[in-house]
Amino acid sequence: MRRRLARALVLPLALAAAMPALSMGFSAPVAADSVVIGGFPVEASQSPWTVALSSRDRFGGTRAGQFCGGAAVGPTTVLTAAHCLDEDVLGGPPERVRDLKVIAGRTDLLSDRGGQEIAVRRTWVNPAYDGGSNAGDFAVLTLAEPLQGDSVIGMAADGDPAYTAGETATVYGWGDISGTGEYPDGLRAARVRVLPDALCEDAYPGGMDGTYDAASMLCAGEAEGGRDACQGDSGGPLVAQGRLIGLVSWGIGCGRAGNPGVYMRVSHLMRTLGWTRASEGV
Ligand code: 4AZ
């Protein structure tokens, strides 16, 4: 029962409303003030590299059309999840979504007008992305104009200690805060831990939901459940020691004991793209 933001948003409302109930039955108690699940509010200025992906045409204007997250790694380069740009999410190829934008420097999507809204000039979806296993879930967006200020985060390359199991990491996003389709207006963050690959290998050995692959994915959350990313956070950053280690990708439910969050491993993306520097285009 893999559930993803964008898919949930295009589901008929009644079905979308019924789905969380299926997973909630097994859930660990979820804090009422969750992010991302179990999180806390943050200002965009505290994580200026966290951006919202938006299409008001496709997702409605209430929360500025937000449907996924992204991480800025260069002044005109944003990373996101490949599954955010699926045809079944966008209703067609990404080039057809005329108002596809990145929103940066804005905390509250409902009422703030600040920050930047920048058109996406080019989308590059990892051709090796496999929607069955979820491997290679990344895409690169090239912006029509540069981001202001110092809003770029460095990427953690292979061998970086930030990937060590037990490290504290922070995930950022505007995603579901309860697992019941409750989307916050403001940006939130949750502190999680990098978990041993074995936990995700046991949780996701293969099948309908996806298959955990330690070389290209990263396991994070809390072994006992609680804090986690959720629908709507996809594509957004997971940061440890000040460096980008993951992009929100998939999992079963949100914040459930025994079902940690699965992230696209940033060192895998760097290797795939031949990127050796911590940031792109700087
Ligand atoms: C999603 O649907 C999604 N709990 C993102 C993260 C997780 C589950 C689902 C991890 O976008």
Automatic annotation (TrEMBL):
Domain Peptidase S1: 36-281
GO biological process terms on file: proteolysis
A Gene Ontology molecular function term of the record: serine-type endopeptidase activity
Top-level taxon of origin: Bacteria
Ranges in coiled-coil conformation: none
Keyword flag Signal: yes
Pfam families on file: Trypsin (PF00089)
UniProt keyword list: Disulfide bond, Hydrolase, Protease, Serine protease, Signal
Signal sequence interval, chain numbering: 1-23
Record keyword Metal-binding present: no
InterPro entries per the UniProt record, alphabetical: Peptidase_S1 (IPR050430), Peptidase_S1_PA (IPR009003), Peptidase_S1_PA_chymotrypsin (IPR043504), Peptidase_S1A (IPR001314), Trypsin_dom (IPR001254), TRYPSIN_HIS (IPR018114), TRYPSIN_SER (IPR033116)
UniProt cross-references to PANTHER family, sorted A to Z: FI18310P1-RELATED, POLYSERASE-RELATED
Record family assignment: Belongs to the peptidase S1 family.
Name this protein carries in UniProt: Serine protease
Organism the protein comes from: Streptomyces qaidamensis
